Amino acid sequence: MTNKATISMQEDARQAVRQAAKAEPRTLAELNALISAAEPFVPGATRAVLGEGPIGAAIALVGEQPGHQEDLQGRPFVGPAGLLLDRALLEAGIERKRSYVTNAVKHFKFEERGKRRLHKKPSAGEVRRYRWWLKKELEFVRPRVVVALGATAVLALSGKAQPISRFRGPHDFDGQAGYITVHPSYLLRLPGQEAREIGFREFVADLKRASALAKASAEPRRSSR
Ligand code: URA
Fold this sequence. Notes:
Blueprint: H1 4-23, H2 28-37, E1 59-63, H3 68-73, H4 80-92, E2 100-103, E3 110-113, E4 116-119, H5 124-141, E5 145-149, H6 151-158, H7 164-167, E6 169-173, E7 176-181, H8 184-189, H9 193-218
Parallel strand pairs: 1-2, 1-5, 5-7
Antiparallel strand pairs: 3-4, 6-7
Helix pairs in contact: 1-5, 2-5, 4-9, 5-6
């Protein structure tokens, strides 16, 4: 249902994006300052959780949105899904601190249930509103390969809803080399130990392939003559 508050929030969000675009940030730090100062485009959020990692990282990992722990600590992927991601990166031989880690949506969208804050999936409209930030962020970071973790990241990166089951694997995001895989939270929700272990192995294999793509794109081309 669309009520007055939602309409005004949507209008504010559009205006905020227009304002940010007008500000023409020239560096990632300037962009981050804009993101931090902007009103959240989703209800419930408290603060912006910015991406982290070095500019020029070979791999950028894009998740959905910060969760409860990320919102408290102000860092991406530090809760249960982050721990699983860390374990998978380690097994794939990818150093997290040399990668760039961020989210499609920069604020935690949640609903209060007593003392608990329950994660709420961002709508497609909300994800689109955050797209400008993400695209700009990746323009500054210039990763060789962008890994989309789950459907929200795919929507944010491509502008289209594309099912993971069909598009899992290497992907071109409007000229940016990418790779589509599942979100680590999906693995945490799989029923049964065996399914979780198989899912984890496949996730690690995806990360290894994405890393190989990044390495291949860094190697100087051999002359065919
Ligand atoms: N899930 C995400 O998509 N991002 C985070 O930062 C944490 C959990």
